[in-house]
Request: fold
Amino acid sequence: MADSRERKISSYYSTIGNYDLFKGISSSDLAAVLDCAGAKIENYSKNIILAPADRDIADAGLILKGNVAMIKEDEHGHQSLITFMKEGELFGEIFSEIKDNASTVRFRTMTKCTIMFIPVGRILNICKNSCPFHSRLIFNLFKSLSKTNAGLVRKIDAISRTTIREKILAYLGEELEYANRANHTPDNHRITIPMNKTEMAQYLCVHRSALLREIAAMRQDGLISVNGQTFTIFE
Reply:
């Protein structure tokens, strides 16, 4: 069983070595890192709850494929999409080492997902072997937390705008700028978002019907074009 797990993980070495969590760790050390951390990989279908609210979270999830939503549900069952994580990003790390670490949110797959789970406690606590890469892993974990916080700040900026049109443009503009910076494509004006219109309305804290009306009006005004989840922004 252990050999099977190791073979499954090893098939992702070339991919995960490029992720922020493992930056600065040599490919020759990667196997030792994952063995030390006790990593495991699981596959999920779309719309699977990965971590229910009020359930203890022991592991952080590193997304190898797909997108994961962080959602909050009120006492009436209404859901809000707080934020979302994409390939190469972590989720659950904020809650995993909190005393009485029951989460107040849910994590749900937005697409088919492949996820590597890593016990955060085994990253934060220096192992008895004093692995040379351990301090780098801790540094990378805290950088990941900063990235999560930056994503939440981008959302706050979008939803704090006065009108629905301003919220949409702020959100799309931030996502486009982020993607262009990551892909080194400064002149690109097209962005595919990881949300359908219902999820987008939840994320921007507006009613779906109002969102659809405003998107239609923005298309008519020549501000954007839309094809499914792909938006083109016209300057």
